[in-house]
């Protein structure tokens, strides 16, 4: 009994667990009380424990083994360094052991174990503002790396445009705690400085999760590609269009309705061979995944943990406003935009950091336009536009970002 009470206290569920009959009207008040109690308890309980100089806590907003923290963890494991990696997992993902390397220690987000491990890790590595969201308070001797989850993405996310005021508050909190931001271009350095990391040191290392995009010719990557193709029943002669739209504040499944058969027909007419469309919805949108899985032209990859792997097997990428396309950009493969709600999205969801027309990606507002863009795709023009955009952003991505981060970790974790 005592153990359960302690856990509830640490996790901010003490009063809500005591009385399941708290009226809805009073629930918010008791949530605040629980949170304040939890913060005080976790500080008293864990805030004075010794910090382990060889322990790193990593987490991502998605809560799986993905993004920049994954690439950094893989490099630590590859170099066989004597670090303990504590990986923070969302409750629904904790039992998917095949997603995680054996030598990670898994803890659940917001659990008693999470606060204990966070308080005793020398380094924290985040890809959003998740530590602040989970009320983890960094100690003076600890070091926080912000890796962010977008590559010079299209969407503004600063306080002036973000409708989620609570998120903005947490971003400022995390910004104040952050020691280093990883960047992959001059544009991004300036963007971070102008948002929540004004006083944070920028590390111009490139983005660790993009390293894999520079390794298409290695045996390891070829094995990974073969395993993904097998998982999704992709025959050797099948080409892949990867369609992965972003999340919208107001959810509307109709916005994601590609005319899959017409798009496949256009691809086969323009580029030849057999084509399939691999669809990966945003993890917050997965309930909208109303795909007709009897259609042989579709593969549903929404539950695949890391989109970076899927970029390796894609021959063409299509999104609306998602920043993954600006990672895929570094493969120099063909990419296009399908933006049926562009005026509404820019007005209500997010403003853009630069005009969408300045990207090298052909833009379509309808299925007909998308098919037309595929049929008329001009490879030479695309490569010229690509170079122009690359130069404008002042990119310095080269496939060695994770190695640089690990060298920095070695300095810190002596």
Describe the structure.
The protein is α/β, with parallel strands linked by helices. The protein has helices at 2-10, 14-18, 24-46, 67-78, 112-120, 130-133, 165-177, 186-194, 219-231, 260-271, 307-313, 325-328, 342-349, 367-375, 379-393, 401-412, and strands at 52-58, 84-89, 104-108, 121-126, 143-146, 180-182, 201-203, 238-243, 274-279, 298-300, 316-319, 334-338, 363-364. Helix 13 links the parallel strand 12 and strand 13. The mean pLDDT is 89.
Number of helices: 16
The count of strands amounts to 13
Helix content: 25-40%
Radius of gyration: 22 Å
Q: State the secondary-structure class.
A: alpha/beta
Based on CA inertia axes, which overall geometry fits?
globular
Rounded to the nearest angstrom, the distance between the terminal CA atoms is 41 Å
Sheet with the most strands, sense and barrel status: 7 strands, parallel
Order of helices and strands: HHHEHEEHEHEHEHEHEHEEHEHEHEHHH
Side-by-side strand order of the widest sheet: 3-2-1-4-5-6-7
What percentage of amino acids are in beta strands? Answer: 5-15%
Low-confidence stretches: none
- The chain-level mean pLDDT equals 89
């Amino acid at each position: 009994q005592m153990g359960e009470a302690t856990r509830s206290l640490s996790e901010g569920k003490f009063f809500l667990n005591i009385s399941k009959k708290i009226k809805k009207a009073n629930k918010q008040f008791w949530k605040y009380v629980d949170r304040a109690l939890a913060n005080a308890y976790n500080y008293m309980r864990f805030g004075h424990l010794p910090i382990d100089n060889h322990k790193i806590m990593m987490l991502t907003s998605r809560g799986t083994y993905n993004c920049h923290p994954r690439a950094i963890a893989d490099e630590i494991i590859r170099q066989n360094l004597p670090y303990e990696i504590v990986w923070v997992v969302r409750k629904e993902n904790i039992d998917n052991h095949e997603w995680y390397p054996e030598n990670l220690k898994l803890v659940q987000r917001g659990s008693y174990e999470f606060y204990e491990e966070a308080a005793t890790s020398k380094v924290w590595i985040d890809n959003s503002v998740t530590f602040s969201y989970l009320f983890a308070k960094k100690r003076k001797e600890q070091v926080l790396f912000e890796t962010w989850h977008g590559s010079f993405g299209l969407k503004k996310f600063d306080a002036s445009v973000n409708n989620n005021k609570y998120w903005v508050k947490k971003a400022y909190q995390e910004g104040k705690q952050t020691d280093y931001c990883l960047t992959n271009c001059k544009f991004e350095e300036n963007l971070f400085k102008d948002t929540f990391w004004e006083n944070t040191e920028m590390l111009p290392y490139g983005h660790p999760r993009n390293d894999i995009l520079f390794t298409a010719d290695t045996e390891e990557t070829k094995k990974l590609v073969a395993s993904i193709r097998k998982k999704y029943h992709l025959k050797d002669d099948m080409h892949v269009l990867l369609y992965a739209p972003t999340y919208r504040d107001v959810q509307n499944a109709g916005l994601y309705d590609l005319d899959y058969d017409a798009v496949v027909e256009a691809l086969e007419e323009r580029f030849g061979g057999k084509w399939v469309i691999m669809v990966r919805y945003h993890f917050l949108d997965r309930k909208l995944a109303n795909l007709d899985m009897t259609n042989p032209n579709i593969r549903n990859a929404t539950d695949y943990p890391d989109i970076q792997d899927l970029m390796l097997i894609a021959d063409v990428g299509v999104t609306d406003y998602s920043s993954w396309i600006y990672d895929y950009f570094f493969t120099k493969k063909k990419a296009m935009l399908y933006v049926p709600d562009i005026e509404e999205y820019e007005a209500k969801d997010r403003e853009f950091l630069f005009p969408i027309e300045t990207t090298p990606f052909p833009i379509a507002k309808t299925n007909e336009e998308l098919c037309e863009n595929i049929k008329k795709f001009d490879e030479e023009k695309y490569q010229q536009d690509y170079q122009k955009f690359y130069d404008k952003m002042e990119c310095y991505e080269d496939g060695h970002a994770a190695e640089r981060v690990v060298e920095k970790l070695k300095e810190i974790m002596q």
